[in-house]
Amino acid sequence: MKQPRNWSVLLGAAFLMATSAVGPGFLTQTTVFTQSLGASFGFVILLSILLDIGVQLNVWRVIAISEKRAQDIANAVLPGLGGFIAFLIVLGGFAFNIGNVGGAGLGLNVLTGLSVETGAIISAAVAIAIFLVREAGKLMDRFAQILGGLMIGLILYVAWVSSPPVAEAAIRTFAPEQISFAAIITLVGGTVGGYITFAGGHRLLDAGIKGREALGQVTTSAVSGITLASVIRIFLFLATLGVLQSGNVLNPENPPASVFELAAGTIGYKLFGIMMLSAAITSVVGSAYTSVSFIKSFHPGIARNENWFIIGFILISTVIFVSIGKPVMLLVWAGLLNGFVLPITLGTILVAAHKKSVMGDYEHPKLLTLFGLLVVLIMTWMAGDTLLQQIKG
Question: What compartments host this protein (predicted)?
């Protein structure tokens, strides 16, 4: 019997995943890669979307059918593996959350003139307030939906006023002049790497959307999450193309802010502040929630006090940012780490998908398994190649 669709939760999980992906790094990476690859970056986006969907469907379906969180699935595959994966996820989550808190502070700085540190503290207080209420899960869903919708509206406007070369972008999406493995691994790692792909899957599980009868809902939510993140990436790509085609030069200190300002003047710069604040603060919420979800099954005390652990996660990230700033090298290596975490986590999920002790009599689609294996191989190869380039560089 099919479960009635709970659109509020389904969209909440999709927006939580999408807004977790769309953080300060997402905005900067998209702008910088468009600057270096031009219209050919469309091909990288297209390929990354296909890879993202394959990863997300595999992960969310296995979570739903097994009715277990990722770390418990990993422990069922190999005792101790769940703890190792949780360590990697939480480490990466902390690193990115420091950047997210800083990004939120920068957004408020642009809007109000407050110092970045003061803006970071205010933003962290807003994020913390969500987890002080009894219905934190529902409030988190609505928060992600409202700010996610706002980001889509803002980027649509900036893309429109920048008058991008849509025809050229469409052609190069299918016939690129150049391809960058580093761009592909960064986009996939930044959209479904690390904690991000588990954000929505764990949220659905917490909301009781699980089991075979929920697969239709899980699939809808999973694809919606990738679609939402991809819409923002595509229109930021087009906006950047439009700005560059007009002969403008982006400020290397803050490329995405340049795009907004060059496209729409002073108003555009203020819109960037809203965009950055929305992207960063939703990522703070998503990172903290998902990182703690990876450790809460290890001790009943963590599960009982989940919201307080989430609040502590946000507080520590904020204190580190305010006291020592955003550690650039840490963020660079955390991004690269996500490229390696994805093959490990996805490979574990694929093994679990075919273990009766985890999945019962459920048969995982062969096409999804093959696609998942392909992603594991591609991401392992590209992550290794990127690591070698980093070491040589």
Answer: Membrane
pLDDT at 1 > cutoff 50: no
Which is more confidently placed, 40 or 196? 40
* Residue 174 and residue 45 in contact, taking contact as beta carbons nearer than 8 Å: no
Angle at the Cα of 316 from the Cα atoms of 312 and 318, rounded to 5 degrees: 115
Per-residue pLDDT tens over the stretch 352-380:
999 999 999 999 999 999 999 988 988 78
Tokens 């993202």 correspond to: 52
What's the CA gap between 218 and 212, in Å, rounded?
A: 10
Angle, vertex CA 373, rays to CA 370 and CA 374, nearest 5: 85
pLDDT in tens, 168-181: 999 999 999 998 88
Report the alpha-carbon distance of residue 146 to residue 164 in Å, rounded. 27
**Terminal CA-to-CA distance of the chain, rounded, Å?**
56
Domain range list for the chain: 7-392
Question: Residue 184: which residues within 8 A CB-CB, separation 6 or more?
Answer: 44, 47, 48, 51, 382
Residues whose CB is less than 8 angstroms from the CB of residue 62 and which lie 6 or more positions away in sequence, other chains included: 73, 349, 352, 353, 358, 359, 364
Name the residue type at position 245. Answer: Q
Type of residue numbered 25: G
How far apart are the C-alpha atoms of 338 and 66, rounded to whole Å?
A: 24
User: Is residue 207 classed as helix, strand or coil in its secondary structure?
Assistant: coil
Average the pLDDT over 240-252 and give the result: 91
Residue 246: how many CB atoms within 10 A of its CB?
12
Question: How far apart are the C-alpha atoms of 217 and 363, rounded to whole Å?
Answer: 18
From the candidate CATH numbers 1.20.1740.10, 3.40.50.720, 1.25.40.10, 3.40.50.1460, the one assigned to the domain spanning 7-392: 1.20.1740.10
Burial class (CB in 10 A: 0-12, 13-18, 19+), 378: middle
Instruction: Tell me the whole-structure pTM to 2 decimals.
Output: 0.89
Nearest in space to 54 (alpha carbons), one of 378, 383, 375, 382: 375
